[in-house]
C-alpha cells in the first residue's frame, strides 16, 4: 500500500472543504425534495393537459437524476471524511496507490485514481 505525504494543513483544509460540500449537497437534496412536493401539490386532483404532464414528468426526471448524482457524491464525501479520520486520505480505495494531490485539490472527495474512476464510470454506463 502506498503512503501519503499530505501535510496536516492540507488535510485540515480538505476536511473543511468536504464538510462545506457535504452541507451544500444536503441542502440541494432538501430543496429538490421541497420542489417535488410543490409539483405534486400543484398537480393535486386537478385535470392536467398533456403539456402540463409532460413538463412535470421532465422536471421530475431531471430532479431524480440530480438527486441520484448528488447521493453518490455525498457517499464519496462521507468516505473521504472517513479516510481523513483513518489517516488513509490520498490513498486509493481500489489499488492502494497514492492519489495525486492535484486530483484531491480538484475533486476533494476522490477515493480512487483517475484511471480507476474512469474504469468504474465505463462499467456503470454499460449496466
UniProtKB/TrEMBL annotation:
- Could you tell me which InterPro entries the record lists for this protein? DnaK_N
PROSITE patterns per UniProt: ZF_DKSA_2
- Residue spans, zinc finger dksA C4-type: 92-116
Identify the PANTHER family for this entry.
GENERAL STRESS PROTEIN 16O, RNA POLYMERASE-BINDING TRANSCRIPTION FACTOR DKSA-RELATED
Q: What is this protein called?
A: TraR/DksA family transcriptional regulator
Q: Which organism is it from?
A: Luteibacter jiangsuensis
